[in-house]
Amino acid sequence: MTSRIINQFLKSFVVLTVLALSACASIQQTERVAKIDPFERVNRAVFSFNEVADDYVIKPAAEAYKFVLPEFVRTGVTNFFSNINDVLIAANNLLQGKPSNAVSDVGRFLVNTTIGIFGFFDVATDMGLDKNREDFGQTLAVWGVGDGPYIVLPFFGPSNVRDTVGLVVDIETDFMLNTNKLSSDEKIAVNGLRIINRRADLLDAGQLLEDAAFDKYSFLRDGYMQRRRSQIYDGEPPPMKEDE
Amino acid sequence: MRASFLKAFIALPLFLMVNSFAFAQNTSTPDGLVKFVVEDVMTTIKNDKAIQSGDLRKINALVDQKILPHSDFQKTTRLSMGRNWSKATPQQQAQITQEFKTLLVRIYGGALAQVKDQKVQYKPFRAAADDTDVIVKTAVVGKGEPIQLDYRLEKGPNGWKVYDINILGAWLIESYRNQFNDQVSKGGIDGLVKFLQDRNTALSTNK
Questions:
Q1: d(Cα A85, Cα A106) in Å, to the nearest integer?
Q2: Interface size, chain A vs chain B, as Cβ–Cβ contacts under 8 Å
Q3: pTM of the complete model
Q4: CB contacts, 8 Å: A230 with chain B
Q5: Strand duo B119-122 + B147-156: pairing
Q6: Nearest Cα residue to B70 out of B22, B106, B31
């Protein structure tokens, strides 16, 4: 149910983007930026929308959440969702031809679900089974799909065409969004918790980012593209071609 | 009982001595230097309540004493500016470097104030003996996900200096290229200098 709503939302967003683009007046861009961010005008509008939504709804909720719950509970919640996600990470590692990483992910899931009490404690990391970060967008990249233009998604934030497709697949295969063990109300509650908890984890970094960026939009864009590139190559990206 | 106590009594200082000796020796290698500076800074923060509560004066003193001697801010600024660097006069270059340094120190200080019980994990270091430009990889492990934090160093006449850092997969210089370029294309080099000065003034009156 929830995933269908999000799905519809994404689809209508893509349509809207295309419409908006045809009406898009050109803005001043360097050659490099024109290549990676041809939809900058629309992206900036969505970015502003996200900032307002964050300022008025998501961030205050995350602050209240952080104020009310002690740190070990919040860490437990983070670990719980992270543990469930390890199954999908294992699947993506298999799809990317990295079976030994997949075995490690499954090992993490088994250890954390049992000894770690339903994933609330991340004992696997202490045992030397490091967490891998994979998603379907990265799998597509390993299969040879290029980034495509940069896109800012409503609520989800920075992305690109490839990662948006990846996100749709991630949502379709997400356990917490698709399980029939939970009613749709319960799903909304659980996934609401997931979003607020995630935002709470990022609160401290928020102000630093605000201070560091000359222009927050392009700073986040360039940071996102670098970070994704690093993730796709599992932290060992080949050096960038120097074009200057 | 007494013998083992005595042994420990003698062994402990000896162990500490050997340890600090090893540290002192290690700073000639880039990974040894990073480890020495990071551990030194972390220990200082953990023992200083004022820094933990965000005392900017003390944080700046810490950065000045322990971190700046091992960094090359001019190189960081020059590379972030890209081809705009040569458009600036030497005086403007010095100004931009100074302002950028002030900004980064402030942000770095803000990050340091958040250090609580984190530990730093040092990844295996790979470089040839005659390399003069290397990357030292670390991860900051606390509650939740580890944070990737890598240092890029260059060997100069005064030893190894850090000139770029990578946070969560993004290099600082690469991230600032567009930021600098945008300001220069909007208001020229003068506009950039003014922008940096305004930002630093706003940040220092804010807190």
A1: 11
A2: 71
A3: 0.84
A4: 148, 166, 168-170
A5: unpaired
A6: B31
